[in-house]
């Protein structure tokens, strides 16, 4: 390609949504110079707060997670879909600021959130020790005003029976030098009749303060609400023409649940909104891929309200007039040659640390020391990656010598502690090593004894899990080629909708994370069992 051709390959390109496929919700978008960053929620998974990087808003690469150790966050005992909610990434005075909420509960009207702030001179760190902020609500975010002051916003929770638990948006000054909140909090905005007002982001533009919030809950009624004021503390006037973005009432749209947005401005003065979205397998059906990130172009006339064409999420959006900047593709196969776990992987409730993950003792193998059972919330041993397409697979080769039925190692299609499918090696009562399949649907376990495969005297076993739309299938290779287990498993139980449970009007469980494919080792007797995985190949079909 000539230099002239490369320079003009800009405006004709399109942003294709979602830009981050699979479990990447609650995006906070930021531009620093020529670089764009997207930070997303991670809940009970490490590393916490995934960050992606782009230079054209079209092509994105993962930079991995910011919260990589327990110094910044301790997820031991974290419930399903608790943990890190709605991070906020800003840049001010040569420093990155990350605010994140660690939500401990959502039962009986309580949340027990704790908000933290860490800073770094570079997006790659090193990140400071966390500053403890308030616990009055979640979805905390910083706003750096033109006068040099910094303010913390969050939703304001109200636990009292009969009250609106979404009590509005609160603001309080943050002293960057003292690294502490100062002054008293003030209620900034109580929201619209849509309710469930959360996810605040504040901007200064055209002589106005612009407050962007999420309303309607994070499912089908989700929306992005815009309000403005001439003064920081309001009063805030809501856009009279309704939400900036929503999918409500449009089950025909491929992108649903549109909401929880944040704005970014390009160097030429254009505006874009990053927002949460989902792609159900059927109209208003289960979303196995979870909540994803999309980007919309925003028209913002001088002194006018921001507008997205039609107020609905588009699958294809005109890209900004920037040089195209694709990134090298991620290799399909991880041979585990590096001394650290690759950026595509996440670990459940504990960091990827040497006390249970080992990439050094046996070069080119990932050794996973067994952890707790599927319902254990302190030290599970699950290394997994997000499902990014309706048709995809994860394939591995494992070496494992179990002592008894308490030791299991294999491959899983996973959602949370209650919803998963697991194909694993273990040892039967008669002493044989066997390959077995077990499923859990909201905690109801289903074994498949008729599908048990004799794997005795086989040193290396190939395992593969495949998502084929609403179906999960498993294959195995004992050295004579791949064979498929003759059962179609329900993939839709690995979804946000299936995981959610409301009892007497109160949430007993939520589903916020989307499906994973992973390598899972259990040592229920704590006898020192481990498995060696030679490689892992992820493909989207």
From TrEMBL:
<feature type="active site" description="Proton acceptor">
    <location>
        <position position="26"/>
    </location>
</feature>
<dbReference type="GO" id="GO:0004553">
    <property type="term" value="F:hydrolase activity, hydrolyzing O-glycosyl compounds"/>
</dbReference>
<dbReference type="InterPro" id="IPR023296">
    <property type="entry name" value="Glyco_hydro_beta-prop_sf"/>
</dbReference>
<dbReference type="InterPro" id="IPR041542">
    <property type="entry name" value="GH43_C2"/>
</dbReference>
<keyword id="KW-0326">Glycosidase</keyword>
<keyword id="KW-0378">Hydrolase</keyword>
<dbReference type="GO" id="GO:0005975">
    <property type="term" value="P:carbohydrate metabolic process"/>
</dbReference>
<feature type="site" description="Important for catalytic activity, responsible for pKa modulation of the active site Glu and correct orientation of both the proton donor and substrate">
    <location>
        <position position="139"/>
    </location>
</feature>
<feature type="domain" description="Beta-xylosidase C-terminal Concanavalin A-like">
    <location>
        <begin position="333"/>
        <end position="539"/>
    </location>
</feature>
<dbReference type="InterPro" id="IPR051795">
    <property type="entry name" value="Glycosyl_Hydrlase_43"/>
</dbReference>
<protein>
    <submittedName>
        <fullName>Xylan 1,4-beta-xylosidase</fullName>
    </submittedName>
</protein>
<comment type="similarity">
    <text>Belongs to the glycosyl hydrolase 43 family.</text>
</comment>
<dbReference type="Pfam" id="PF17851">
    <property type="entry name" value="GH43_C2"/>
</dbReference>
<dbReference type="InterPro" id="IPR013320">
    <property type="entry name" value="ConA-like_dom_sf"/>
</dbReference>
<dbReference type="Pfam" id="PF04616">
    <property type="entry name" value="Glyco_hydro_43"/>
</dbReference>
<feature type="active site" description="Proton donor">
    <location>
        <position position="198"/>
    </location>
</feature>
<dbReference type="InterPro" id="IPR006710">
    <property type="entry name" value="Glyco_hydro_43"/>
</dbReference>
């Amino acid at each position: 390609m000539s230099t002239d051709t490369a320079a003009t390959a800009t405006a004709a390109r399109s942003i294709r949504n979602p830009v981050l496929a699979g479990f990447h919700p609650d995006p906070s978008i930021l531009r620093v110079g020529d670089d764009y960053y997207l930070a997303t929620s991670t809940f009970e998974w490490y590393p916490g707060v995934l960050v992606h990087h782009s230079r054209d808003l079209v092509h994105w690469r993962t930079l991995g997670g910011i919260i990589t150790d327990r110094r910044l966050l301790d997820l031991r005992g974290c419930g399903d879909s608790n943990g890190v909610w709605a991070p906020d990434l800003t840049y001010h005075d040569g420093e990155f600021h990350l605010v994140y909420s660690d939500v401990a509960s959502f039962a009986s009207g309580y949340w027990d959130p704790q908000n933290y702030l860490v800073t770094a001179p570079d997006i790659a760190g090193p990140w400071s020790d966390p500053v403890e902020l308030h616990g009055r609500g979640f979805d905390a975010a910083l706003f750096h005003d033109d006068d040099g002051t910094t303010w913390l916003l969050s939703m304001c929770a109200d636990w009292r029976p009969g009250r609106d638990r979404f009590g509005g948006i609160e603001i309080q000054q943050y002293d960057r030098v003292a690294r502490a909140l100062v002054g008293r909090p003030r209620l900034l905005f109580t929201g619209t009749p849509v309710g469930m007002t959360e996810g605040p982001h504040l901007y200064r533009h055209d002589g106005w303060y612009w407050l962007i919030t999420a309303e309607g809950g994070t499912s089908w009624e989700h929306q992005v609400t815009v309000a403005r004021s001439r003064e920081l503390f309001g009063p805030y006037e809501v856009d009279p023409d309704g939400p900036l973005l929503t999918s409500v009432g449009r089950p025909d749209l491929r992108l649903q649940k549109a909401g929880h947005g944040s704005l970014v401005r390009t160097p030429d003065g254009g505006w874009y909104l990053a927002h949460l979205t989902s792609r159900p397998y059927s109209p208003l059906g289960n979303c196995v891929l979870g909540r994803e990130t999309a980007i919309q172009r925003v028209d913002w006339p001088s002194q006018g309200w921001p507008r997205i064409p039609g107020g609905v999420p588009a699958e294809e959006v005109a890209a900004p007039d920037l040089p195209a900047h694709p990134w090298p593709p991620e290799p399909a196969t991880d041979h585990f040659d590096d001394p650290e776990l690759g950026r595509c992987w996440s670990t459940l409730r504990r960091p990827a640390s040497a006390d249970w993950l080992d990439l050094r003792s046996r070069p080119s193998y990932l050794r996973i020391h067994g952890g707790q059972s599927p319902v254990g919330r302190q030290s599970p041993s699950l290394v997994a990656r997000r499902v990014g397409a309706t048709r995809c697979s994860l394939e591995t080769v494992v070496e494992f010598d179990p002592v008894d039925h308490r030791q299991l190692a294999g491959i899983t299609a996973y959602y949370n502690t209650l919803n998963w499918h697991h194909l694993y090696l273990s040892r039967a009562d008669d002493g044989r090593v066997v390959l077995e399949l077990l499923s859990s649907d909201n905690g109801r376990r289903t074994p498949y004894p008729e599908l048990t495969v004799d794997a005795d005297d086989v040193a290396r076993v190939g395992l593969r899990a495949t998502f084929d739309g609403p179906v999960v299938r498993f294959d195995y290779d004992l050295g004579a080629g791949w064979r498929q287990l003759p059962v179609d498993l329900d993939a839709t139980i690995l979804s946000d909708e299936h995981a959610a449970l409301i009892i007497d009007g109160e949430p007993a469980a939520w589903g916020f994370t989307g499906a994973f494919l992973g390598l899972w080792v259990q040592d229920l007797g704590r006898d020192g069992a481990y498995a060696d995985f030679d490689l892992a190949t992820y493909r989207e079909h």
